[in-house]
Write a structure and sequence with these properties.
Order of helices and strands of chain B: HHEHEEHHHHHHEHHHEEHHHHEEHHHH
Radius of gyration of chain B: 29 Å
Shape of chain B: globular
Strand content of chain A: under 5%
Mean pLDDT of chain A: 85
Structural class of chain B: mainly alpha
Low-confidence stretches of chain A: none
Largest sheet of chain B: 2 strands, antiparallel
Distance between the termini of chain B: 55 Å
Strand content of chain B: 5-15%
Oligomer: heterodimer
Number of strands of chain B: 8
Number of helices of chain A: 11
Shape of chain A: elongated
Number of strands of chain A: 2
Radius of gyration of chain A: 29 Å
Helix content of chain B: 55-70%
């Protein structure tokens, strides 16, 4: 006791106590908090198996670019990929179910394509559970929260025009961006994928999180997008719904060509035979 | 009463009118007016008839359109916009589209007719340009045509802005940007146009007056002047058998040309109705109402403004800041330069050509494009210049549909806009010369009859027959391009007027413009003997075999 009594007034004692307290707090948090959450969440949802299966799928199909622990990798000119810690299950579900990931040919942007054989709703769920277990992030929305019939298309349309159409075009037909990137057409995307894209901001797209656009507003937007793409064009062929470019093309290729042919027909004369 | 004369019910009023305004003589003289026949002479009528359709459908649209920017909440039958706030102009456009019987069809016919109106003017203008039909005495009519085209662009722009949907707002914003970029007057002009800060509450009603009253009125007056001048000056005709500078060979206005022209109106109306029925144009309900904060990908103007859009898109971001004033070259240059080059160039070309060639004669026979290679090349270079800008106006669509990087399209565009016209000029020039040589070959050697003849000495020759008379006349209608007298006299002194720098430029241009013109002579046997002596024997055989071959060939 004497020694402690003697040293507790040492000039460095207060720092030692502070250091001890901090390390204790940090150590306990590091040991318990995330690990506990991860285990608890997985166990609570009965998805401990999903995480294990997902880890295996990840090692087989994703790790070559994203690293064995999803920490990401960078190799100039080679297989590179960002860290996936914290991107959430929604990002995995969006990228893999739309066929964008795994990325076949490195390029400015991953195109939508037919997913490989191993991709199924089950494997996507497992992979998503694994990535979710690494650091949380946006989760896959419930079916009810993306149901177009429950949204208000008029409100959704205003949000869609304010936030989406500058890249995706006025009915979601897609548009070009810089450096070989592009805003893809929204027509093939499912309501869930549209929601996930807004929540995670894949590729060149910004994130529209729940404080920017609430889940209800997202559902309104989905209602508008799905409604617009299912809408029959009342004026005839929609001409690709990409605006005046195709209209001009049709005016010349169909309109002027037909009228030139008509003019040739009207003024046509029988060739006179050579009477020399 | 004899049965020869018209019934009294017709003869009476007809005499009444005839005795007072002399309509009979007028009609007798004008119904017999002869019009030459060539399909390309009908192209201008596309624009004329589209204009008539525009007036009729436009009148229909005015019955329901409300040119007001007052804010209302939509409560019509288009579901996805119910409850959305919008201007009354947009609301009434939606009303026409969804709640007026036949309204959408009329809107679509009006818009398609507008596109064909401008496109028809363009193809008509190209025909006039490439055949040299703008030459004396028709320069004034050419200038009226250039004015018509310019006004049609303004008419189109104002019409495009009226529905007040998101797309039309984008066009309006660029219009404002161009207006405000003008040095000194820009800000005043914008304030006058918009009645204050953009977008204000006045622009739609102002554009409406311009679109339905002022510009159509001027267009109608100019179109009438255009037609009257054409009537008075008579139509040009292609060179051919019996066609001279002082006659017109063709069919009389009544009944022949009138029937054709009437049929062509029905064709134009048919095509426009077909497009209006089956091809959706400007779906304003999909764009939504205009708010200055929103913009859609793929926001393009109608095609005739596309070249300005393209020039704006490839322009580097240049600006000059001087004493607190900004000169936005990145807007000024693309907005004014291409328009200036094309419209001013068009208006001045007839006079420039006269100045260069010194040719002040009247011309009523059209040139075949190949026979004036420099003019044709200038035309093709201008088409290339215009076409590249037009294409680049859609560079985002090209980028997204063909997977080409957007910046690549702009960077390539910046090079091609200068290189393209030069390449087009060279290629066109060589093609014209090549086609002239082909004509020479036909004139001199005739056309292949497909008959191989064996001569008594065992030699085989291919029998050529002379070309059909009208074809020959068409080819031999080639006129040489005159040049000004610029050669120095014996003491090395150039003629008067050619001694100053401008005169020297004129002399050199004139020399270049008429170069190659007489190298290929199509007027009979002259060309035949130039460097063709080696082939004398076979040609004699061709001549000898001509009669026989004709009976086989025909």
């Amino acid at each position: 006791m004497n020694s402690i009594t003697a040293r507790r007034r040492h000039p460095f004692a207060r720092y030692a106590v502070l250091l001890l307290a901090l390390s204790l707090l940090g150590g306990v948090y590091a040991l318990l908090a995330p690990g506990g959450d991860r285990a608890d969440a997985a166990i609570a949802s009965g998805k401990a198996d999903d995480v294990t299966a997902g880890k295996e799928l990840f090692a087989a199909h994703c790790a070559s670019c994203h690293g064995l622990n999803a920490e990401g990798s960078y190799a100039p000119g080679g297989a590179s990929g960002p860290s996936l810690i914290g991107v959430g299950a929604a990002a995995v579900d969006f990228q893999v179910s739309s066929g964008r990931m795994p990325f076949a040919n490195p390029g400015p942007q991953a195109p939508r394509k037919r997913p490989p054989e191993w991709v199924s709703p089950d494997t996507v769920r497992q992979l998503a559970a694994y990535v979710q277990s690494l650091g949380g992030g946006p989760t896959k929305p419930s079916l009810a929260s993306v149901d177009p019939t429950k949204g208000d298309p008029a409100k959704g349309g205003e949000l869609f025009r304010a936030n989406c159409i500058q890249c995706h075009n006025f009915v979601g037909s897609g548009g070009g961006l810089t450096y070989g990137k592009y805003a893809p057409p929204l027509n093939p995307a499912t309501p869930t994928q549209i929601y996930e894209a807004m929540a995670t901001g894949p590729q060149a797209m910004p994130v529209f999180n729940d404080s920017t656009i609430t889940p209800e507003q997202k559902r309104d937007m989905i209602a508008y997008i799905v409604g617009a793409r299912n809408q029959a064009d009342p004026g005839g062929s929609g001409l690709g719904r990409i605006g005046p470019v195709t209209e001009g093309l049709v005016a010349w290729v169909v309109g002027i060509s037909l009228l030139a042919l008509a003019a040739i027909w009207i003024t046509a004369k029988k060739r006179q035979a050579n009477h020399d | 009463m004899s049965l020869d004369g018209p019934p009294k019910a017709i003869a009476g009023p007809a005499n009444f009118i005839d005795e007072r305004i002399g309509a009979g003589t007028f009609l007798k003289r004008n119904l017999r007016k002869v019009f030459p026949d060539h399909w390309s002479f009908l192209l201008g009528e596309i624009a004329l008839y589209s204009f008539i359709i525009l007036l009729l459908t436009g009148t229909f649209l005015t019955f329901w359109f409300k040119p007001s920017m007052a804010e209302v909440a939509y409560n019509g039958s288009y579901g996805p916009l119910v409850g959305v706030h919008m201007s009354q102009a947009y609301e009434s456009s939606l009303h026409i589209s969804f709640d007026v019987r036949g309204g959408l069809l009329m809107r679509q016919i009006h818009h398609w007719a507008a596109l064909l109106f401008v496109a028809g003017m363009m193809v008509h203008m190209l025909r006039v340009f490439f055949t040299g039909a703008y030459r004396k005495p028709r320069e004034l009519n050419w200038i009226i045509g250039v004015l018509l085209l310019t006004l049609a662009l303004v008419e189109g722009l104002t019409g495009y802005s009226l529905p007040d949907d998101l797309l039309s707002g984008a066009g309006l914003r660029i219009t404002e940007g161009v207006a405000i970029s003008l040095p000194l007057v820009g800000t005043y002009l914008t304030y006058f146009l918009f009645g204050g800060e953009y977008p204000g509450e006045d622009v739609i009603s102002r554009f409406y007056s311009l679109h339905i009253l002022l510009i159509p009125g001027i267009l109608l007056a100019l179109i009438s002047a255009h037609l009257i001048l054409m009537w008075v000056q008579k139509h040009t005709q292609m060179p051919g058998k019996g066609r001279t500078e002082s006659n017109v060979v063709g069919a009389p206005f009544y009944p022949s040309f009138m029937a054709k022209s009437g049929a062509y109106f029905l064709f134009t109306f048919g095509v426009v109705a077909l497009l209006g029925t089956f091809a959706q144009i400007n779906p304003i309900w999909l764009f939504g109402p205009y708010t200055p904060a929103d913009i859609s990908a793929g926001s393009q103007p109608d095609f005739y403004m596309g070249f300005l859009e393209g020039s704006l898109r490839i322009m580097p971001a240049w600006e000059i800041n001087f004493l607190g004033h900004t000169l936005p070259l990145s807007v000024l240059i693309p907005a004014l330069l291409p328009m200036g080059i094309i419209m001013t160039g068009l208006a001045l070309y007839p006079f420039a050509e006269q100045w260069i060639t010194g040719d002040r004669r009247e011309h009523h026979l059209a040139d075949r494009p190949r026979n004036n290679p420099h003019r044709t090349s200038i035309g093709l270079a201008a088409i290339t210049f215009y076409g590249i800008l037009w294409l680049l106006g859609a560079n985002d669509v090209i980028s997204s549909k063909f997977h080409i990087s957007l910046y690549t399209t702009s960077e390539v565009g910046r090079v091609v806009i200068f290189a393209g016209p030069a390449i087009a000029y060279y290629i066109t020039y060589r093609m014209c010369i090549g086609l002239q040589r082909k004509d020479l070959e036909t004139v001199v050697h005739g056309v292949e009859s497909g008959v191989i003849k064996r001569l008594p000495n065992g030699e085989y020759i291919e029998v050529h027959v002379p070309p059909a008379e009208d074809l020959l006349a068409l080819m031999q209608g080639k006129k040489s391009i005159p040049a000004i007298e610029a050669a120095s006299d014996g003491e090395g002194v150039p003629p008067k007027g050619m001694r100053n720098p401008l005169g020297r430029i004129r002399a050199r241009l004139s020399e270049a413009y008429s170069a190659d013109t007489d190298a290929i002579s199509l007027d009979g046997g002259d060309g035949h003997h130039n460097g063709h002596d080696g082939h004398e024997a076979p040609h004699a055989a061709v001549g000898a075999g001509g009669d026989e071959a004709k009976s086989i060939g025909h």
